């Protein structure tokens, strides 16, 4: 056991969990209510601080960090935590939920928050798999395993908002799963997408140019409900630079990503239900430079 990590690892003497978790049933109930954090703590009292869960009677086959980029959606977060802790426990995962929150009064940068989630997450535990998860997507089937196969996995294949159909073939947004090695080989996400749009297609391009194919479960399994909400036009305006940025992905991905990530952690807390990282993404200089360069 590596005592330098804040999370406790499982005993190597425990037998491995079954290849297929025994309690899976297929379609599951999706909870759309948002219990208080205190009520959720009573529902999931076995979690280690930081929202770290492990099977009690066997050694998990998967060490998974679920990274949730977040701002201003408290009720959505509580709904997601309720649904995910129930599912991930049943799937016998060694997991934690890492919520990366951006400070107020900055343009939202979802992809950069994902990079921060990875950079801070690897300090917590010996994760093998990172799942990047929008706060408003709720799984409908427990056979949709939150683990990483040998190639990157797009998980949110069939979302009710899109009539449970893939909007377009190359989509890699919503929820995606990648191993540590895969993330490093694509240099993570771009840091340059301030506002709404473009970062998912940039990520899909990175995955493709690095030579990976994308895995997907069949649509009847990879089903999600989306929590209804209004678009936050002020904090998350449409990114007018997105098409110009996307045109550069294949030439810039090696220098824009994990290896160019700059941020400041404002707060780092191991809360009962999740790890909370409040972060300043240093928008001022970076965003202005992009607007000047692209005249957008």
Compute the average pLDDT: 95
Head-to-tail CA distance between termini: 51 Å
Total domains = 1
Number of strands: 11
According to CATH, the homologous superfamily is Spore Coat Polysaccharide Biosynthesis Protein SpsA, Chain A
Q: According to CATH, what is the topology?
A: Spore Coat Polysaccharide Biosynthesis Protein SpsA, Chain A
CATH architecture: Alpha-Beta Complex
Unreliable stretches (pLDDT < 50, length at least 5) are none
InterPro entries: Galactosyl_T (IPR003859), Galactosyl_T_C (IPR027791), Galactosyl_T_N (IPR027995), Nucleotide-diphossugar_trans (IPR029044)
Pfam families: Glyco_transf_7C, Glyco_transf_7N
GO biological process, one term: glycosphingolipid biosynthetic process
Domain Galactosyltransferase C-terminal: 153-230
């Amino acid at each position: 056991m590596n005592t330098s990590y804040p999370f406790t690892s499982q005993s190597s003497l425990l037998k491995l969990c079954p290849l297929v978790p025994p309690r899976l049933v297929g379609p599951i109930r999706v909870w759309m209510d948002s219990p208080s954090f205190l009520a959720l703590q009573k529902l999931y009292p076995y979690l280690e601080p930081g929202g770290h869960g492990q099977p009690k009677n066997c050694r998990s086959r998967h060490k998974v960090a679920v990274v949730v980029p977040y701002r201003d959606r408290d009720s959505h977060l509580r709904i997601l935590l309720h649904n995910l802790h129930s599912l991930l426990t049943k799937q016998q995962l060694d997991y934690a939920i890492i919520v990366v929150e951006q400070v107020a009064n900055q343009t939202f940068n979802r992809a950069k928050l994902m990079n921060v989630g990875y950079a801070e997450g690897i300090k917590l535990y010996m994760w093998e798999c990172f799942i990047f998860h929008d706060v408003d997507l709720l799984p409908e089937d427990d056979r949709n395993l939150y683990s990483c196969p040998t190639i990157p996995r797009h998980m949110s294949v069939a979302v009710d908002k899109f009539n449970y159909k893939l909007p377009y073939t190359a989509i890699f947004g919503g929820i995606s799963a990648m191993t540590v090695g895969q993330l490093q080989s694509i240099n993570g996400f771009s840091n340059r997408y301030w506002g709404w749009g473009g970062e998912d297609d940039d990520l899909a391009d990175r995955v493709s140019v690095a030579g990976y194919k994308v895995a997907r479960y069949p649509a009847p399994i990879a089903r999600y409900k989306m929590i209804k909400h209004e678009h936050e036009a002020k904090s998350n305006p449409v990114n007018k630079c997105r098409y110009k940025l996307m045109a550069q992905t294949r030439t810039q991905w090696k220098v824009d990503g994990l290896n160019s990530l700059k941020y400041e952690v404002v707060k780092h807390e191991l809360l009962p239900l999740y790890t909370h990282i409040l972060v300043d993404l240093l928008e001022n200089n970076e965003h202005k430079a992009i607007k000047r360069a692209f005249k957008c």
